[in-house]
Amino acid sequence: MAPAPATVCLAFTGASGLPYGIRLLECLLAAGRRVQLLYSQAARVVAKQEMDLELPAAPKELAEHFRAAYGELPGTLEVYGREEWFAPMASGSGAPDAMVICPCSMGTLAAVAQGLADNLIERAADVMLKERRPLILVPRETPFSVIHLENMLRLARAGALILPPNPGFYAHPQSVDDLVDFVVARILDQLHVPQSLQAPWGGEKEA
Question: Measuring CA to CA, which residue among 174, 168, 140 is closest to residue 17?
Fold first, then answer.
């Protein structure tokens, strides 16, 4: 089994499904990880619409917002804007151990599939592919067009992991939070980060 990453770059884009990303951020910090957070302005719109959550536009203010919410957790948080080209994840020499784009819009997915790298989210993902480090994309769209599917196939062949947020119901979820936790647990499993949100198949959930 691959070692759990010490540093994870997490990106929020404008796709629906920001509760997955926010919960993942909390869990990574709870697991003591160093999280490098990237976000698009469209993600701020989605946060307001889906969670009634007002996320500050400036990276420094957003970092303060999340530190106020999760400051008691053992992990560390850094926040970068989409145009901060001197951020560490913009180069292979400063690449994180793993990256997750959650949720991932079809626009971002297409850009990464084509190697466009026109902003820091796309460039960071491009770096992960070229450095052959784990890149997980959580695409939230339905139905998928042929173009969407071809882009996902291209990324999978390049080494990315495509993890659509499709919750299972065998654990008998009782709330929306349970459905969110199911997907976040699968992401953490792929990162080899210990989690107690969902038990493995045939096992029992930890306290």
Answer: 140
Is residue 70 marked as binding?
A: no
Query: Is 89 one of the annotated binding-site residues?
Result: no
Residue 107 marked in a binding site: yes
32 carries a ligand binding annotation: no
128 belongs to an annotated ligand binding site? no
115 assigned to a ligand binding site = no
Q: Is 76 annotated as a binding residue?
A: no
* Whole-number Å distance between alpha carbons of 87 and 180: 30
Tokens of 109: 């997915």
98 conformational bin, left if phi > 0, alpha if psi -120 to 50, beta if neither:
beta
Query: Model pTM?
Result: 0.95
Q: Is 14 annotated as a binding residue?
A: yes
Query: What are the C-alpha distances in Å from 95 to residues 88, 129, 204?
Result: 6, 11, 36
pLDDT tens-digit series, residues 120-169: 999 999 999 999 999 999 999 999 999 999 999 999 999 999 999 999 99
Q: Is 170 annotated as a binding residue?
A: yes
The number of CA neighbours under 13 Å toward the Cβ of 165 is: 28
Q: Residue 13, annotated ligand binder?
A: no
Read off the pLDDT of residues 6-39 as tens digits, 9 standing for 90 and up.
999 999 999 999 999 999 999 999 999 999 999 9
Q: Give the helix ranges, DSSP H, for the chain.
A: 18-30, 41-51, 59-70, 106-114, 120-130, 146-158, 176-191
